[in-house]
Write a structure and sequence with these properties.
Number of strands of chain A: 13
Pfam families (chain B): CT_A_B
Shape of chain B: globular
Largest interface: A-B, 46 and 46 residues
CATH topology of the largest domain in chain A: Cyclophilin
Number of domains of chain B: 2
Number of domains of chain A: 2
CATH architecture of the largest domain in chain A: Beta Barrel
Shape of chain A: elongated
Oligomer: heterodimer
GO molecular function (chain A): 5-oxoprolinase (ATP-hydrolyzing) activity
Mean pLDDT of chain B: 93
Order of helices and strands of chain B: EEHEEEEEEEEEEEHEEEEEEEHEH
Distance between the termini of chain B: 23 Å
Strand content of chain A: 25-35%
Mean pLDDT of chain A: 93
Strand order of the largest sheet of chain B: 13-20-17-18-15-14-21
CATH superfamily of the largest domain in chain A: Cyclophilin-like
Radius of gyration of chain B: 20 Å
Protein name (chain B): Biotin-dependent carboxyltransferase family protein
Number of helices of chain B: 4
Largest sheet of chain B: 7 strands, mixed, barrel
Keywords (chain B): ATP-binding, Hydrolase, Nucleotide-binding
InterPro entries (chain B): CT_A_B (IPR003778), Cyclophilin-like_dom_sf (IPR029000), PxpC (IPR052708)
Chain lengths: ~220, ~325
């Protein structure tokens, strides 16, 4: 694979953003995982934040951001995809959320077909973000891609298994969300009291297994 | 120890927030008016990272159960101690049974109370700030309720009673008023280039109205619709407090301290760190203006805040020596 173009821009006084265009691609994301690793130790970098096809570098307030900005493009061109495979985790799902029937109908599918399509692939955690422990998952069967709800629900429970656009996800903290609810899991994706608060890490793979279906 | 009598519209325990955890989706949280909390801690000789109270729009009161030294900072809430006015930017030792009340903010949005030794709540993921979205940090991960009690790191028992503060004449910067028109400076970001000269000039010339739905998560602005020369579908990327996004509605949203760690809307720029405190105090319905500056100028502005806090620490240190 040839390295896709990446654009470096300022994010305020002490951060840089490097990003590449879509559509979501695991090959491109592997480059960003590798770039993340090589950027964490750059002088003055306080933290790095992975996105989908992007990396945000936040610097200490007095760091010389301009020097790194000049180097970042070179660093990107030299980046090779991160190798290896992350852990494989299984998330048991009780299918039957509020939107399961409507989502099936909107795609002209039966409920058992939606469950089969959702539980078949091995998903990859591209990045974590938005809320504590929330995974951006790649790998959703395109037949299940569904535009987000026109108005978000004010309260979606922790553990809700959801679909938003071409992404699958699991709500990690009870919160408002515009994604479609098709099931629930008891697996906790985030617990601040654990040594590793977030269950998942970028690069991890996960499968949804069918615990129960109720329509 | 203090006991909350009335929590007002939203009182939370905050410090300077969490950093280094955005990669697992944990945001910064922390005081919206970071400068005010830093000044309050400086007045008491507290550590920079000491936790205090952030009170939104006043209506807050507590009684003291043990002697405690506090400092009031931020918005003018017409605070009283047992019915007598207590000025802001002021440190005072309170005795058991005394009641401190804040009225509704007359200027500004957020008042701060620091306590000597800091509020003694558990540190969670490196900070004592309340993460409302995560439901952790601060006092049980939530806003304060009537009847909650909070202990302080160092009770004032047996030490000399303190009563001193900062004057408007010596520290005029602290008395700026957030109720009329607020100007904040920003550094342009990636999609600034997607707007033509006219749209950019309109963004900077407009007096944007801060909508009532603005809060610790974000500020929504009302004004003319800004139309880009190109519409992009962006993937989710890391964002920071201060990020000015332009959703398809064409009206800007500024992400604040409780915002998501990633976002996907086009971003015009990022409000500089030194001006986030001004934003924190700009009242709902008031007017906001933007001025473009460079990243280097923004870093200089940040140093001026550090200098102010150090100067206050130095100027008041003799007051704390017994």
């Amino acid at each position: 694979m040839t390295t896709p173009a990446a654009h470096v821009s300022e994010m305020g006084e002490s951060a840089l953003l490097i990003q590449s265009a879509g559509p979501m691609s695991l090959d491109v994301q592997r480059l960003y995982w590798a770039l993340d690793r090589s950027c964490r130790d750059l002088p003055g970098v306080a933290e790095t934040v992975l996105g989908v096809h992007s990396l945000l570098l936040r610097f200490d307030p007095q760091a010389e951001v301009a020097e790194t900005a000049a180097r970042l493009q070179d660093l990107w061109n030299e980046t090779r995809p991160a190798g290896g495979q992350g852990r494989l985790l299984e998330i048991p799902v009780h299918y039957g959320g509020e939107d399961l029937a409507d989502l099936a109908a909107s795609h002209d599918l039966r409920i058992d077909e939606v469950v089969a399509l959702h539980s078949a692939p091995t998903y990859t955690v591209f990045a974590l973000g938005s809320q504590p422990g929330f995974p951006y998952l790649g790998g959703l069967d395109p037949r299940l891609a569904t535009p987000r709800r026109s108005s978000p629900r004010q309260r979606v429970e922790e553990g809700s298994v959801v679909i938003g656009g071409e992404q699958a996800g699991v709500i990690a903290r009870t919160s408002p969300s515009g994604w479609h609810i098709i099931g629930a899991t008891r697996v906790s994706l985030f617990d601040h009291a654990r040594d590793e608060p977030a269950l998942l890490q970028p690069g991890d793979r996960l499968r949804f297994s069918v615990e129960e279906v109720s329509a | 120890m203090i006991r909350i009598l009335t929590p007002g519209l939203g009182a939370t325990v905050q410090d300077l927030g969490r950093s280094g955890l955005a990669n697992i989706g944990v945001g910064r949280s922390g005081a919206m008016d970071r400068r005010a909390l830093r000044v309050a801690n400086a007045l008491l000789g507290n550590a920079e990272e000491a936790a205090g109270l952030e009170i939104t729009l006043g209506g807050f009161s507590f009684e003291t159960l043990e002697p405690v030294t506090i400092a009031l900072a931020g918005a003018d809430t017409g605070a009283t101690l047992d019915g007598r006015p207590l000025p802001r930017w002021w440190a005072r030792t309170l005795l058991p049974g005394q009641v401190l009340r804040m009225g509704h903010s007359r200027t500004g949005m957020r008042g701060y109370i620091a306590v000597s030794g800091g509020l003694d709540v558990p540190e969670v993921l490196g900070s004592r700030a309340t993460d409302a979205k995560g439901g952790f940090g601060g006092h049980d991960g939530r806003a304060l309720k009537a009847g909650d009690t909070l202990t302080t790191g160092a009770e004032a028992r047996g030490t000399r009673a303190l009563d001193y503060g900062l004057s408007p004449r010596a520290w005029p910067d602290l008395w700026a008023d957030g109720s009329g028109e607020t100007e904040v400076r920003f550094v342009p970001a990636m999609e600034w280039a997607d707007y033509d000269e006219e749209a950019r000039a309109l963004f900077c010339a407009t007096g944007w109205t801060i909508e009532p739905a603005s809060n610790r998560i974000g500020y929504r602005l009302d004004g003319p619709e800004l139309v880009p020369t190109i519409r992009r579908e962006l993937l989710s990327h890391g964002i920071l407090p201060g990020t000015i996004q332009l959703p398809p509605s064409g009206r800007p949203v500024i992400q604040m301290l409780d915002a998501n760690t990633v976002g996907g809307y086009p971003k015009l720029g990022v409000v500089i760190d030194a001006d986030l405190p001004l934003l924190a105090q700009a009242t709902l319905g008031s007017t906001l203006r933007f001025r473009e500056i460079s990243a280097a100028e923004a870093r200089a502005a940040r140093r001026r805040e550090d200098d102010l806090v150090s100067a206050i620490r130095r100027a008041t240190s003799h007051q704390r020596k017994g």
